Amino acid sequence: MLGLHLAELYGVETRALMQAVRRNKERFPSDFMFELTREEILRISQTVTSLKYSKAVYAFTEQGVAMLSGVLHTPRAVLMNVAIMRVFVKLRVLMSAHKELAGKLAELERKLETHDTEIQGIFDAIRGLMHEKKSRRRIGFKVGEPRASTCAAVSP
Asked: What digits encode the pLDDT tens for the residues 127-136?
């Protein structure tokens, strides 16, 4: 999350949030918080227009957001941090469910690939039977053909 959005959620100015972070640098290593490059700022400034003229924009990871509650001591900051952490947990659950679903879908695709060849084999066998049926000699009697009698004729 961007620092300016967190400041808004916590009810503090961005300047105050960043001042608290600078006073506690050791709590925010590079995997908790990082500064966006100028190109990244310009790329996201298309959606967040207030960033266009910012000199520095900071992004916070999930751990950085959690660490902010230890740095910001306002009641709203603590409440917002709890809410944000709950959202992160829900996102993690959704992402893991998505991974599981993607795995099951890939497995189904693999099964269907083998089924395609098996189904094609079944169609080929049916077509073969259809062609074979046409060339077969019919079994049975033709209408109008005299039948050979198996019974001996009895004379009166």
From this structure: 777 776 555 5
Residue 152 lies in a domain: no
Residue 25, domain extent: 3-103
Q: Which range, of 10-14, 91-95, 99-103, 143-147, averages the lowest pLDDT? A: 143-147
Mean pLDDT of 3-13: 87
Residue 132 lies in a domain: no
Do the beta carbons of residue 60 and residue 48 sit within 8 Å?
A: no
* pTM of the full structure: 0.52
Residue 141 · residue 147 · CB < 8 Å: yes
> What was the pLDDT predicted at 123?
74
33 bridge partner residues = 60
Sequence letter at residue 128: G
Domain count, the chain: 1
The pLDDT score that the predictor gives to residue 128 is 78
The secondary structure of residue 106, as a DSSP letter, is H
In a domain, 144, yes or no: no
- Give the up-direction half-sphere exposure of residue 21: CA atoms within 13 A in the CB hemisphere: 27
Tell me, yes or no, whether 126 lies in a domain.
no
